[in-house]
UniProtKB/TrEMBL annotation, chain A:
Lineage of origin: Bacteria, Bacillati, Actinomycetota, Actinomycetes, Micrococcales
Subcellular location: Cell envelope
Keyword Transmembrane helix among UniProt keywords: yes
Species, as recorded: Helcobacillus massiliensis
CDD domains: FDH-O_like
Name of this protein: Formate dehydrogenase iron-sulfur subunit
Binding, [4Fe-4S] cluster 1: 38, 41, 44, 244
Cofactor or coenzyme needed: [4Fe-4S] cluster
TrEMBL record, chain B:
Organism of this sequence: Helcobacillus massiliensis
Keyword Transmembrane helix applies: yes
Residues annotated as transmembrane: 72-92, 104-123, 144-162, 189-209, 221-240
Family, similarity comment: Belongs to the NrfD family.
One of the Pfam families matching this protein, by short name: NrfD
Gene Ontology cellular-component annotations: plasma membrane
Entry protein name: Formate-dependent nitrite reductase membrane component NrfD
InterPro entries given in the database record: Electron_transfer_protein, NrfD-like
Bilayer topology: Multi-pass membrane protein
Main location: membrane
UniProt KW keywords: Cell membrane, Membrane, Transmembrane, Transmembrane helix
Location of region: Disordered: 1-45
Length: 343, 371
């Protein structure tokens, strides 16, 4: 039973909230991107671009930002691999901020599942008197992370879309219908992660100059990752996850992905890697939890992710209230002016 | 394939923070560099928010700017003029100020028409603008706005057509149906009174219900700023179009609107996080808003002193108020865009509110978790 008004903020089942009937609803699908085993090969970027036939984004010259040559997610780049080179100080800092997170007693969400013998061993190591000092303190490390649309439980882009071009699929993902979108751009400002973008440029043939709009499809409309909606409908794995050679990008049911993420972070903590942390696994966060969970090895902003994203419609009530009050005030002042101006 | 070409670009090992800031380009970089020099560029008043300690991904933006150009800023202004003129026309209709009523109706139609053109021109696919009317969506201020604007355009059209028919000596071949048009115009005039304020104010909700730091941070104060600005601009226009014998209410509204605009801006800024506020005070948006401030004061004082005595000076004051209102809208829109260019505007306020919640003992609602 859903309430009359769909929920806009907080933990929820997005599929039920979007009123998919029991018959049509599927299990919510999600990515778990484990950045600790990403090797930065960019196969995900290529596979995504191939499968979705996305136009070329710029000239792919290196940005003098390590090995990054796409820069950020956008209308034409739906997977973006970030490269961060860190020295001893940053590694120590990341470890410290992770340790602080652990000591805050940040909750493990959901029912505690019975531990496997392996996990028990890990827990014993973590809590026991075994020496858990990090085996090494590298003086240099390379962070690589494949970023993607978060497919938020409370999706800002979807909430503010005036045409209904953005919709919640039966898999709980958020997808743009490009034949409906009129390119108003509200979703671009709505997304707290800077993912969705209007396709205002892009080329498809190697000879074309930037600015040539040679038959680029879906020009002028909003574009972003669909979590390969077309492939999901055929029971396939999204292109990026299928191609990932290290299984850094995992795909599956949302609950399984969150469980896997929790297991993995516990594993890394047990090895002394306190810098490991999850991003998007908490249904109580500002976007109701994400449909793309990440295991990060530093603060989110190091990867270009916001530290406390909030869906804009969290403030819907507050905004509507000041909107109504201001409108009423304008009418009242006008009424007074006319009454006072009569004499 | 060799690394050597690119190694040339690689700077020598340095503390990371410094490197990041050196690489910042564009507006954000200029801003930071200026600040590092200690804001030594003369007497320019700049807000100096203490440097925030945080890392970023090469200083790249986190959120994206709305793809909204000057058309949208112009629309915010024109929508305000249209809404305010609707209220004036309704008041004039109630109190039998015929010139004011007629001129305000024409003004409303002109502004709402030009505004709609701006709005459609700024779409990525203008030919699909009717898709806005596929659905009614309470969570989307753009959707509310579409419906308010359509309704407002319709009633204003009816009212203005009737006025035009009257002015042009009943040119429309209506015959016995003319009284019906007049009745419809009266009813439409009432509807303009009801829809004017919501039309002028919804654009504030449109900007605030985003992830753009400065707009979202202004959400409590922005509607008040926009209705004040709209009131001042529409009254200013009435002072240009209509003689002083009928504009007393408009002059009162112009002064109230101008004062409201100044007060609302001040209160709004006080309510914002220093980093969310900063883009309103620096660079191009800062310059525009400062000029808007001066024009609004000049227009308000001019109206107070000369509004009744001199038609020319009243019109000049009205023009100053309109210019001030327009610059306010352009400044606010551009400040929002500026706040997306530097990640500090995203990270700073978010880190602070996270820390605040943690200090208050709330530790279960972070997107980053240990397990």
């Amino acid at each position: 039973m859903t309430a009359l008004m769909p929920k806009l903020y907080g933990a929820e089942d997005p599929i039920e909230n979007a009123r998919w009937s029991l018959h049509d609803a599927k299990d919510r699908k999600a990515f778990f991107t484990d950045t600790s085993i990403c090797i930065g090969c960019k196969a995900c970027e290529v596979a995504c671009k191939e499968w979705n036939q996305n136009p070329q984004d710029g000239d792919y010259e290196y940005l003098s930002q390590s090995h990054d040559n796409t820069g950020e997610l956008g209308a034409n780049t739906w997977r973006h691999v970030a490269f961060i080179e860190q020295g001893e100080d940053e590694v120590a800092k990341a470890r410290e901020s992770g340790r602080r997170l652990v000591s805050l007693g940040m909750p493990s969400i959901g029912p505690k599942t019975a531990m496997t013998p392996e996990q028990r061993a890990d827990a014993a190591i973590a809590g026991g008197n075994v020496d858990t000092t990090p085996p090494d303190t590298p003086d240099f490390r390379w962070l690589m992370s494949s970023d993607v649309c978060k497919h938020c439980t409370n999706a800002g882009c979807l909430d503010v879309c005036p045409t209904g071009a953005l919709f919640r699929t039966e898999f709980g993902t958020v997808v743009v219908q490009n034949d409906i979108c009129n390119g108003c751009g509200t979703c671009v400002a709505g997304c707290p992660f800077g993912v969705i973008q209007r396709r205002d440029d892009g080329t498809i043939s190697p000879k074309s100059e930037p600015g040539d709009h040679d038959d680029v499809k879906n020009m002028g409309t909003a574009n972003k990752c669909t979590l390969c909606y077309d492939r999901l409908l055929d029971g396939q794995t999204p292109a990026c996850a299928q191609t990932c050679p290290t299984t850094s990008i995992k795909f599956g049911d949302h609950t399984d992905m969150v469980d896997k993420a929790r297991q993995r972070v516990a594993e890394l903590h047990a090895k002394g890697m306190t810098e490991a942390r999850l991003y998007g696994a908490n249904p109580k966060d500002g976007v109701g939890g994400t449909g793309a969970v990440f295991l990060l090895l530093d603060e989110p902003e190091t990867y270009g992710l916001p530290p406390d994203p909030v869906v804009p419609t969290k403030h819907l009530g507050q905004i509507m209230a000041s909107y109504a009050a201001a409108s009423a005030g304008m009418v009242a002042v006008a009424a007074l002016a006319f009454l006072g101006g009569r004499k | 394939m060799t690394n050597s070409d690119f190694d040339a670009y690689r700077p020598p090992e340095q503390p990371r923070r410094k490197r990041r800031r050196d690489r910042l380009s564009g507006a954000a970089g200029d801003m930071l560099r200026r600040r590092r020099r200690g804001g030594d560029d003369g007497g320019r008043e700049m807000s100096m928010v203490d440097d925030v300690e945080f890392t970023s991904y090469y200083g790249r933006p986190i959120v994206k700017a709305a793809p909204w150009g000057d058309e949208i800023s112009a629309y915010l202004f024109l929508g305000g003029v249209a809404g305010g003129s609707g209220l004036l026309a309704f008041g004039a209709q109630m109190f039998d100020l015929d010139d004011l009523r007629r001129n305000a109706r024409f003004a409303a139609l002109g502004a709402v028409g030009a505004g709609t053109v701006c709005l459609i021109a700024d779409l990525g696919r203008p030919e699909r603008f009717l898709n806005m009317m596929r659905t009614v969506k309470p969570t989307s201020p753009m959707s509310w706005g579409t419906w308010i604007l359509s309704a407002y355009g319709t009633v204003t059209g009816i009212a203005a057509v009737s006025e035009a028919d009257d002015v042009l000596g009943e040119v429309l071949p209506l015959g016995p149906l003319r009284p019906m048009l007049r009745t419809a115009a009266d009813t439409s005039g009432v509807a303009m009174g009801f829809l004017g304020a919501p039309l002028a104010a919804y654009t504030a909700a449109l900007l605030s219900m985003t992830s753009t730091p400065t707009w979202a941070g202004a959400r409590r104060g922005l509607p008040y700023l926009f209705v004040s600005s709209a009131t001042a601009a529409a009254s200013g226009l009435a002072m240009i179009t209509t003689g002083s014998e009928q504009t007393k209410p408009a002059r009162l509204l112009a002064i109230t609107g101008a004062a409201g605009e100044l007060i609302a801006m001040d209160l709004m800024k006080k309510d914002m996080h220093p980093l969310e506020r900063e883009p309103l005070e620096i660079e191009e948006p800062g310059r525009k808003l400062k000029l808007a401030h001066a024009l609004t004061i000049a227009g308000g004082v001019g109206t107070l002193l000369f509004g009744k005595r001199s038609r020319i000076l009243a019109a000049a004051s009205g023009a100053a108020l309109m210019a001030g209102s327009a610059l306010t809208r352009f400044g606010v829109v551009e400040a929002g865009h500026l706040s997306t260019t530097d990640p500090k505007y995203v990270v700073g306020p978010q880190r602070d509110r996270l820390e605040e919640r943690r200090a208050a003992g709330i530790v279960d609602d972070s997107i980053t978790t240990a397990g």
